[in-house]
UniProtKB/TrEMBL annotation:
Name of this protein: Transcriptional regulator
Origin: domain of life: Bacteria
Organism this protein belongs to: Anaerotignum lactatifermentans
Gene3D superfamilies: 3.30.70.120
Pfam entry (one): CdAMP_rec
InterPro entries reported in the protein's UniProt record: CdAMP_rec (IPR010375), N-reg_PII-like_a/b (IPR011322), N-reg_PII/ATP_PRibTrfase_C (IPR015867)
Length: 108
């Protein structure tokens, strides 16, 4: 068994989760925030048998879109001595995915 942890954008979460559920793959959804943009994203955790890993990854990949976002970071140059905010373009996603071996799985 594997544990798939996937960080996806909030906008894609509904589609990803409903397609996983249709494939009889159970999901736990967590509301998370990226450390860089500090904006909300969604982390899904799903425990799957080894033979279902590829199917789950395909569903996550196919339903997670890459998007451009803007982050405003302090700039070190300019008249305000570091207080001018410089928006930068950041490409986010589709999905950041970790696949971990599961040592034990219990439902008590
Ligand atoms: P954030 O940390 O908010 O990062 C959003 C996007 O900003 C990233 O997209 C990346 O394109 C860019 N970015 C992140 N750190 C950067 C930096 N130091 N300098 C320049 N650009 C930077 P993604 O790579 O698609 O990541 C989307 C979200 O996935 C991240 O949100 C974070 O929540 C998570 N993530 C990505 N890689 C991770 C990792 N190795 N471990 C844990 N979480 C990760």
């Amino acid at each position: 068994m594997k544990l798939i942890i996937a960080i996806i954008q909030d906008e894609d979460a509904g589609e990803v989760i409903s397609h996983l559920n249709e494939a009889e793959i159970q999901v736990t959804r967590l509301a998370t925030k990226g450390g860089f943009l500090r904006s909300g994203n969604t982390t899904i955790m799903t425990g799957v048998d080894d033979e279902k890993v590829d199917e789950a990854l395909k569903i996550i990949e196919e339903n997670s879109k890459s998007r451009t976002q803007y982050a405003t970071l302090p700039s070190s140059c300019g008249a305000m001595h570091g207080f001018i905010l410089a928006p930068i373009e950041v490409k986010v996603g589709g999905a950041t995915v970790f696949v971990l071996d599961v040592d034990q799985f219990h439902k008590f």
